[in-house]
Amino acid sequence: MKIVLNLLFIISVLALFSCSNNEKIKPTHEPYSILIEKFNADFHSSISSFNTLELDTLYVPSNSVNSVILGYFNSIKEARNLADNLIIDSIISEYKLVKNDSIQTTFNSKFQFVGLNNGIPSLLGYDFHRNKFDILWSEWGRNVYGFYQDFEKNVSYFITSLSWGRRGGIPYILNTRLYFMDNYKETIKRKKIFGKGNLINGFWLNDNFQVYFYALDSIKTTIIKRVALQFDYDGNKLASDSSDYDLLSGGFPLPPKKNLQYFSPSNKYRIILGNKDSLNTISLYDEVKADSSAIVYSDEELLQIEWSFDDEFSIVRTAKIHTNEKGNSMISTLTVYNNFSRKILYQINGYGIKNFFIFGNNIVYDDGIESNSKIYFYNFKENKIIRTVEHKDGLGVFTYPQVPD
Fold first, then answer.
1. Do 356 and 393 fall into the same domain?
2. C-beta of residue 286 within 8 angstroms of C-beta of residue 269
């Protein structure tokens, strides 16, 4: 494999020396490429698909492993967009992202979702090409509370708990633990046992995973203790901190939240918030034209913003918890907005959480509650759902979709 990658360097050097001394041309190209070694068809049939992409392509036939180094890209998101679409189109089953001469990450056609196994929220693997599930992680008394993926390094952290909820208006969470997973290798390691507490939240920030755990002091119950931990892509702990807060003087400390992606990848667009007639307004602002257009008027809270890598689409998720005599329910809305035409392309509203992520030209989102929940692959370039994924007990993207306490 290293020989294959070094061929790029050799070819560049040969091109340099083929020029005259007076030309002084230096071989330059964008840093990211896609290395493909596994195809869904034979090698020679597969390369015909690449010839239509109008990209710099290096074919490396071999008696052992046939390889293709595909394209030069400025960003990892641009490279991933193309490679992910090749997986969705069933042209390849796996690829590696290469930066200069170094392999960064390996991806394949398997996704990770949260679903029930023997009534326990567990981590399930879903193979898009085989349309089948397998169990990645499931243990009695270890319900998956939250699943947190990094889509550039293809690793995840997840939090488990025996149970969680509220007692007398005070949140609680029991037997809390943190795990790390390499998504491609499907290897899992326990990183921390927190135990009994009141609240935990985690998110990725600046290429590191942050987790905050809160627990009332067992002796002085007006004091709440916060443990803050930071981990890297490889599951290594980078930092830890512990703080005490007085509930009588300062109240319950609000846990930090993941920063929303207000700016598009090129910074040409950004999401701005406002209020009109007691409704929240979510608008798209064009930095070049210095004007804005409304996307959503809603009484729901903005929870998530994502963008297509080429700036054409913005995707926003809003939600609100409703309480009545029958209990709580969550109403949420997922909106796909075409930034170029200034029109809503797709919108779905109703019960459920609608967590989502982008894979190629597709939005992968969940909808529904508990056993009625499903996962959908919606292609925003073609404006259609290309697949609905069902599991007998329901399925969620980052957590098992349940009615909130």
1. yes
2. yes
